[in-house]
Amino acid sequence: MSTSRSEPIRAMLADLKMPGALEAIDEILSEVDGGRIGATDAISRLLSAQISLRNNRRLRAAMRSSRLPVVKTLEQFDFSFQPSIKREQIESLHELRFVERKENVVLLGPPGVGKTHLAISLAITAAQRGRRVYFGTLTDLISSLEQAQTAGQLARRLAVLTHPAVLVVDEIGYLPVSRSGAVLFFQLMSRRYERASTILTSNKSFEEWGAVLGDEVMVAALIDRVLHRCHLVNIRGNSYRMREHTAMRKTPEAELEAEIAGRTSRRTRTSAAS
Ligand code: ADP
Ligand code: MG
């Protein structure tokens, strides 16, 4: 494959600011020269190289602005480990009709069953479709509202947190909330009610939310609103973290076996993806 022949194309791709296509062009042309692919495939591969670079960038930008802590995807989720989860329900939620309808999602269950994983994968899917998302633990969100209140900027902060099409409120129930913090959270949830979707996760049942958030009457009103247009995912099962833990505590041979299995499945995944 002659680089000189690709030079004018490279210059045009650089001019068009298409680094993804630029990186892929030489390999694509050598496939063409080798007679392994035709013109349609070549053009298609060139454009998809650029599109996937753009999507990755968009995802990275969305991860930063939304404060999503890590990337977790639906593909990474092992449904066989968590039989109490209805796969169809989770897949259908990932089609994001709930976002259009401004409905909520509540993920309940003990620690380690995948509540945060699924909340993040929903939020990332929404971000990839160009929706604005924001992620915070209940404690984070309340402390940001408290800080804003102290600075006399509560109205602005409430507006900012009402704006995203998807807000994830993670970890309701792990840490106690002050009475004034709970009031701020109720204000936020009232603003978002029927305006935008909220995904909430909790290790506590609704009956226990009163104790977490203090005021029973306010909590009843909150739950009423949250549940009014809500998809409930109640997970009963074992912690995925503990599973990994037990696997690690096995004999050296089992450990080696698990490692090899991990490598093989990683390789299978990579080749399947390419
Ligand atoms: P929770 O929020 O319910 O406490 P997480 O979603 O944080 O639990 O899950 C704990 C860890 O285990 C995370 O790294 C998550 O990606 C992983 N995990 C949980 N459930 C599954 C699953 N069914 N398949 C794959 N990974 C899982
Ligand atoms: Mg969690």
Task: Give your account of this protein's structure.
This protein is α/β, with parallel strands linked by helices and 274 residues long. Helix 7 runs antiparallel to helix 8 (154-162) and helix 7 (138-150) packs across helix 9. It contains 13 helices and five strands. The protein folds into two domains: 3-65, no CATH class; 74-234, P-loop containing nucleotide triphosphate hydrolases (Rossmann fold). Helix 9 (179-192) links the parallel strand 3 and strand 4. It is elongated. A five-stranded parallel beta sheet has the order 2-3-4-1-5. Residues 72, 76-78, 81-82, 109, 111-117, 201, 240-241 line the site of adenosine-5'-diphosphate.
In short:
With 274 residues, the protein is α/β, with parallel strands linked by helices. The protein has helices at residues 3-15, 19-33, 39-66, 87-93, 97-100, 115-128, 138-150, 154-162, 179-192, 206-213, 216-228, 240-248, 252-273, and strands at 104-108, 133-137, 166-172, 197-202, 230-234.
